[in-house]
Write a structure and sequence with these properties.
The protein has about 180 residues and is mainly α. The protein has a domain of about 120 residues: Up-down Bundle (Methane Monooxygenase Hydroxylase, Chain G, domain 1), CATH 1.20.58. The protein is built from 4 helices and no strands.
Length: about 180
């Protein structure tokens, strides 16, 4: 059983909730979630740019996007550390286990207005994460198909160039893909 505060701020075991740890932890958590929302929004914009670059075959733009993604992911890892630090502070303040504490658990410990805000932030992050996962999946599929298409064309060109266009009798043989040179030219 967790030591959730009641409406008067008392923990269920009758002790006063350590407001400083809970309030400062909740504030730090709210800031970390807001920053994560911005990072995910930036990553979604990058995924859209990446799709266009893949379709256009713009290798330079893809390289730039990869560099930008790496920076955002590093920042996201730092924010995740901040978020977990805030959850540990909240759990410690309330006597709960930080390893099992979820955002819903944290929201249940806070006043309604703060709880709503955190719950909305969590829901928005989930929506953004799913959208990013889908965009990355589409881009990965586009890259895979582009790679397959390039491989087919390279193999076709190798077949064309590996054999002689003219046979011993001076005539053209059948070329791969059913294409042959126009003999009237």
């Amino acid at each position: 059983m967790s030591n959730q505060p009641d409406a008067t701020g008392q923990l269920l075991n009758g002790e006063a909730a350590p407001a400083i740890g809970l309030e400062s932890g909740a504030a730090a958590l709210a800031v970390a979630l807001a920053d994560e929302e911005q990072i995910y929004a930036s990553m979604l914009a990058l995924a859209a740019r990446e799709e266009v670059a893949i379709v256009d075959g713009d290798v330079e733009e893809l390289t730039t996007i990869v560099d930008e993604k790496e920076q955002l992911i590093e920042h996201l890892h730092a924010l995740e550390t901040e978020r977990m630090t805030a959850i540990v502070a909240i759990a410690t303040a309330c006597g709960d286990d930080p390893a099992t504490m979820t955002l819903s658990d944290v929201a249940a410990l806070l006043p309604a207005s703060t709880s709503e805000s955190l719950t909305e932030s969590g829901a928005l992050l989930r929506v953004q994460a799913v959208a990013l996962q889908q965009a990355n999946g589409r881009n990965a599929e586009l890259l895979r198909r582009s790679h397959e298409l390039i491989d087919r064309w390279v193999n076709y060109m190798k077949q064309l160039l590996s054999g002689s266009l003219y046979g011993e009798d001076g005539r053209t043989g059948d070329l791969p893909g059913g294409r042959s040179l126009d003999r009237t030219a």
